[in-house]
Automatic annotation (TrEMBL):
Annotated PANTHER family: MEMBRANE COMPONENT OF ABC TRANSPORTER YHHJ-RELATED (PTHR30294), TRANSPORT PERMEASE PROTEIN (PTHR30294:SF38)
Entries under InterPro entries matching the protein: ABC-2_transporter_component (IPR051449), ABC2_TM (IPR013525), ABC2_TM_bact-type (IPR047817)
Annotated family: Belongs to the ABC-2 integral membrane protein family.
Highest classification ranks of the organism: Bacteria, Pseudomonadati, Pseudomonadota, Betaproteobacteria, Burkholderiales
Keywords associated with the record: Cell membrane, Membrane, Transmembrane, Transmembrane helix, Transport
Location of the protein in the cell: Cell membrane
Protein name (record): ABC transporter permease
Record carries keyword Translocase: no
Membrane-traversing stretches: 21-41, 249-268, 292-316, 322-344, 356-381, 410-430
Domain annotation ABC transmembrane type-2: ranges: 208-435
Topology within the bilayer: Multi-pass membrane protein
Length: 436
């Protein structure tokens, strides 16, 4: 019995090891997926994070606003591009820039008088509604650089802004010369007195928009500006996270549907159905074309139903072009059909095709931004995934729903999807074998 058991186990192991495609899939996919998510969530801690794409609008042109702009441009966390007001607003609405900062005319003069808090310049921060955390990061960086440059201008011969509230007590224990110590103590008392509002004194407060923001003038040396934040998108209803999640999951499971239909072609070939059909006066292109059309129709209808269910349950809408939305759905359906045919042509057998399909579909979905939005990818991966058709499908559906973009944006995404479908279908016609 033991010899028989060992022989059976050895046979099963040999059969598994001979199936090289399945072996590669089982070993390679965990490594690839773990590498992907590890790179997103910190990795070894030394990777370069994707820099936040920011538009900078300086309508003041003063020496102070220019220095703040230079500091932001040199900040390693930001990728700053100088724009006009109209260019910046359009870029944020389209998602080309994650946020924009606008320095108003008169900023340099008003911010220099930081001690007079009755009239503060109003700096505007516009941001993509899906990027609320990025807006908070940009708000903090702006405060850091603005305070540094304002204090550098206003306290050129002073000690700076650190610890003014407790400076007097600390100076007593210091080894500074007596004259310098007394000068610094006077400065600390003066700043603390100026910080205390007097009866009848108006204190400017920061305006807040749709997201956390605004200056807090109750602290020592409050910010020399008021911050007004505003979420910008072409869609009137703003960002809806369900719109992206339904786009991503709809695209993923439609692609899985294409895999199953592609494997069904190979099962039909194994049963001899293809040989019987070839006996009829039907061309090779006609037979594969019929399967392409059927998969295209099924995939498009399924994706439409998934998106309609999300709209009914969670209230997001097509805020862009309805024709563009349908065009992207049809493009995704065509890509699914071409993908299924290409897998059937490359896989050879149903068993081998399933292994290949798992690896290919997971990679496409992962890199296409269906699981995790593409804007959180590292910078190099964001550029690389522009070659992934599913990235265009997910971004196209986002553009037509919550982003509210026009037909032109959808046409570009659909062109990539239809073009990819054409290439995959041509590959299937070239490589498909009528006998297993």
């Amino acid at each position: 019995m033991m010899h028989a058991l060992i022989a059976l186990v050895r046979t099963q192991l040999q059969l598994y090891l001979k199936n090289r495609k399945a072996l590669i899939t089982h070993l390679l996919m965990p490594v690839l997926i773990a590498t992907f998510f590890g790179s997103l969530f910190g990795g070894s801690g030394d990777r370069e994070m994707a820099r936040l794409k920011v538009a900078w609008v300086d309508e003041d042109g003063s020496a102070l606003s220019q220095r703040i702009g230079q500091q932001l441009q040199q900040d390693g966390k930001l990728a700053v591009q100088v724009m006009t007001r109209a260019e910046a607003e359009a870029a944020v609405r389209k998602g080309e820039r994650r946020a924009a900062l606008l320095m108003p005319a008169g900023f340099g003069t008003q911010a220099s008088r930081w001690w007079d808090r009755r009239q503060l310049p109003e700096v505007q921060l516009w941001y993509d509604p899906s990027e609320a955390l990025s807006a908070q990061l940009l708000e903090g960086l702006l405060a850091q650089h603005a305070m540094r440059e304002t204090l550098a201008q206003g306290f050129k011969s002073g000690p700076g802004a650190g610890g003014l509230a407790t400076l007097e007590s600390e100076l007593e224990a210091s080894e500074l010369p007596p004259l310098r110590r007394e000068q610094l103590k006077v400065l600390a008392r003066t700043v603390n007195e100026l910080q205390t509002p007097q009866p009848g004194e108006g204190v400017a407060t920061a305006a807040s928009g749709d997201a956390p923001g605004g200056a807090s003038p109750g602290e020592v040396l409050s910010l020399p500006y008021a911050l007004k934040t505003r979420a910008l998108s072409a869609g009137q209803a703003g960002y809806n996270g369900y719109a992206h999640s339904f786009s991503g999951m709809g695209v993923q499971f439609v692609l899985m549907l294409g895999v199953e239909l592609g494997v069904g072609l190979l099962m039909a070939r194994r049963s001899g159905m293809w040989q019987r059909l070839r006996a009829a006066p039907l061309s090779r292109g006609l037979l594969l074309g019929s399967h392409f059309l059927s998969i295209w129709i099924i995939a498009s209808v399924v994706l439409l139903v998934v998106m309609a269910a999300g709209m009914a349950l969670f209230g997001f809408r097509v805020q862009g072009s309805l024709a563009g939305f349908l065009l992207v759905v049809l493009g995704m359906g065509a890509f699914t059909a071409g993908f299924g045919l290409a897998l059937a042509a490359m896989g050879g057998s149903p068993e081998a095709t399933r292994g290949l399909a798992i690896m290919a579909s997971l990679m496409l979905v992962m890199l296409g931004g269906a699981w995790v939005p593409s804007f959180v990818f590292p910078a190099w991966l964001q550029d690389l995934t522009l070659w992934v058709p599913l990235r265009w499908a997910v971004d196209g559906l986002d553009a037509m729903t919550w982003r509210g973009q026009g037909l032109g944006t959808a046409a570009l995404a659909a062109a990539v999807l239809f073009g990819s479908a054409l290439l995959l279908t041509g590959l299937a016609l070239w490589r498909f074998r009528w006998r297993e």
